[in-house]
Design brief:
The structure holds 2 protein chains of 2 kinds.
Chain A lengths: L21 E5 L19 H4 L2 E2 L4 E2 L1 H4 L5 H5 L5 E5 L1 H4 L8 H13 L21 E3 L22 E4 L20 E4 L3 E4 L7 H15 L3 E4 L14 E5 L16 E5 L4 H11 L4 E7 L4 H10 L4 E5 L15 H14 L7 E5 L5 H10 L3 E4 L1 H5 L24 H26 L14 E3 H13 L13
Parallel strand pairs in A: 8-9, 8-15, 9-10, 10-11, 11-12, 12-13, 13-14, 14-15
Antiparallel strand pairs in A: 1-4, 2-3, 5-16, 6-7
Helix pairs in contact in A: 5-12, 6-12, 8-9, 10-12
Chain B lengths: L2 E8 L6 H8 L4 E8 L7 H8 L5 E7 L9 H18 L7 E6 L4 H18 L7 H10 L1
Parallel strand pairs in B: 1-2, 1-3, 3-4
């Protein structure tokens, strides 16, 4: 049995005070000077520990406060309030919400699963990945315990072309050499995000994190910084259409590469494979209106790995901009199933994968593995202010962050994601993540439920005021 | 040496902090706008510590007292500003390095006047003497 894969998380405190969701308004004027002030009874001693963050000009009390409201309720003159923090609500955007950013920061700091202990206060259902509910029916039977190690749950995935059948010669040997396969210990690859101050430095951090995790780092070949020899095998250089030169010395040192899809990509792949047969080549395909047909076409032509990339808001591109990534993955997956080619190719997906649950849900929809990009930047305390895109100063100084510190925060984030994947697999009674791929029977889709169950019961015809009776 | 102005802005008074930045147009003076739930969120120690970072000017924008969402918040913020100015005078620093404006919530047209007032103030005051302090301390220690 192979050694159990384990991600070594270690607490890395933030360099900047993480913005709190709520803030304390403390009106000291008019204080009665009670013998036992509510501030002295704070369970986390926030009023004594509070300080001042000179980089952000904020009172650090909000970072310490656990929102128990003891002081708010206890002050006899009602001089303490809690209010929503506008600085918190203004970070991120409509997709990368403040909650996603705060959750990511917590995981990158601690490596732990974010559990509030105060129940789930979110919505019942929502758009995109929130419309998928995973099946946890086995949660009552704690036999699959991946995190605590009582039973091993494998998160390994294979990258490469898998033959549909084997043929042997008279000596009982394979007629042709088996295609190269790269086994990764977890279904998450790292990639450099489109944003980030000092991209070269960011590449160094991502490479180190990929090395620590044993997964691949997809890095742009055009601006690739020197990579330590021991980490070269885990770097997947990404080439734009037409930028790949067979004389590139890097091709002899890496185990995989990525090429952006273009009309002559298959011939280009053939030329590379002829010279470097052990290289695993991924073709990066945009998630636009042609993606389903293109994925089927490339797979039929022998593609090993296909990377479908969507927008950073998990939406398709071009004609598919109104379609969510989950639907695009499902369409591609089902098309390959229909063509009886699904098992031959590895499907990677990227774009808008922001939370641990998105990993499991993307795999349920039909991906083999996912690519994390923007969350890696968030792990470095990024506020998504996008100043770096305008050549402005990074408010959290990612450009001067040490490689060791940054890599450990990324490792912590992926460690927390991996533990949540293990929890989901354990609750489903599954022993390996490969079996989760395309397993839609393990999930419920809100759109389907609305159509099949809720619509006949509750939906009204247009202009009809009362509930429609089932016919 | 470039200067820096920090503005603590009540979110009722200034719902869009970017509106202030869009009116700024000063290359030599950096503006940072921090939205707050109420101007009374900003305490005297926060104003003083912000000035000590050092920042050249600290400004608080709140609502007119009759429009304050927290009823007394804007009134209390005014009291804190008075206290902070008095304190700065006592320790020998310029009280004018902190300032305050009030406006009717959401009155965007009033923001242009406030921005002009902030600009006039920072240009009149120049760089904070605290910016020179580390050099002066180094000179003293060299002697």
């Amino acid at each position: 049995m192979p050694a159990k894969y384990h991600i070594h998380v270690r607490r890395v405190p933030p360099r900047f005070s993480p913005l709190a969701k709520n803030t304390i308004i403390d009106w000291a004027e008019g204080c009665l000077r009670c013998a036992r002030c509510v501030k002295e009874q704070c369970p986390v001693d926030a009023y004594r520990k509070r300080g001042f963050d000179p980089t952000q000009f904020v009172d650090t009390i909000d970072e310490i406060c656990r929102d128990c409201y003891r002081c708010v309720q206890g002050c006899p003159r009602e001089l303490i309030f809690k209010a929503a923090n506008p600085q918190y609500s203004q970070i991120g955007d409509e997709y990368w919400t403040p909650e996603i950013l705060a959750t990511t920061w917590y995981q990158a700091e601690s490596g732990k699963i974010p559990v509030s202990g105060a129940g789930y206060g979110g919505r019942f259902s929502g758009p995109g990945f929130d419309s998928i509910w995973t099946d946890m029916s086995e949660i009552v039977r704690p036999t699959r315990d991946g995190i605590h190690g009582r039973e091993y749950i494998s998160t390994s995935v294979d990258l490469g072309r898998k033959p549909m059948f084997l043929t042997f010669n008279e000596q009982g040997e394979l007629d042709w050499p088996s295609p190269p396969v790269l086994e990764l210990p977890l279904p998450i690859l790292l990639a450099e995000p489109s944003l980030g101050a000092n991209p070269g430095h960011l590449q160094e951090i991502i490479t180190q994190a990929a090395f620590d995790l044993g997964t691949l780092a997809i890095l742009s070949r055009n601006r690739l910084v020197p990579v330590p020899a021991e980490a070269l095998g885990l770097v997947m250089p990404s080439y734009t259409a037409g930028s790949l030169d067979l004389k590139d010395p890097l091709l002899a040192q890496v185990r995989s590469l990525e090429i952006l899809d273009h009309p002559g990509v298959l011939e280009q792949v053939e030329r590379v494979k002829k010279r470097y047969p052990e290289l695993i080549i991924s073709i990066k395909v945009p998630a636009d209106g042609r993606v389903v047909a293109r994925v089927a076409e490339l797979t039929a032509a022998g593609a090993e790995v296909i990377h479908i990339f969507a927008s950073e808001h998990a939406r398709g591109l071009g004609d598919y901009q109104d379609l969510h990534l989950k639907d695009i993955i499902r369409r591609c997956h089902l098309k390959l199933v229909e063509d009886k080619l699904r098992d031959t190719v590895t499907l990677l997906v990227s774009g808008g994968l922001a939370l641990a649950e998105h990993v499991a849900k993307a795999i349920i929809c039909g991906a083999d593995a996912i690519i994390a990009d923007l969350p890696l930047l968030l792990a470095l305390e990024c506020r998504l202010c996008r100043q770096c895109a305008k050549k402005g100063d990074c408010p959290v100084q990612i450009d001067v962050l040490t490689v060791k510190r940054g890599a450990q925060r990324m490792v912590n984030l992926i460690g927390a994601w991996n533990n949540q994947l293990l929890e989901i697999l354990g609750a489903m009674g599954m022993r390996e993540v490969r079996r989760l791929r395309g397993e839609v029977g393990r999930a419920m889709f809100m759109e389907d439920l609305e159509k099949e169950i809720f619509a006949p019961l509750f939906a009204n015809r247009e202009g009809e005021l009362t509930k429609r009776e089932p016919t | 040496m470039s200067m820096e102005v920090v503005v603590f802005a009540c979110q009722q008074a200034v719902p869009e902090p970017d509106a202030l930045k869009n009116l700024w147009h000063e290359r030599e003076v950096r503006l940072r706008v921090l939205p707050e739930p109420c101007s009374s969120k900003v305490e005297a120690f926060q104003l003083l510590r912000t000035l000590a970072t050092p920042v050249d000017l600290v400004w608080v924008i709140g609502c007119e007292e009759q429009f304050c969402r927290y009823n007394e918040g804007s009134h209390r913020a005014g009291g804190r500003l008075t206290y902070t100015k008095k304190y700065l005078g006592e320790i020998g620093l310029e009280p004018a390095r902190v300032g305050r404006s009030v406006l009717t919530p959401g009155n965007v047209s009033a923001l242009a006047g406030i921005v002009a007032e902030i600009k006039d103030r920072i240009h009149a005051l120049g760089a904070s003497p605290l910016r020179q302090a580390p050099k002066a301390a180094a000179r003293r220690s060299a002697k």
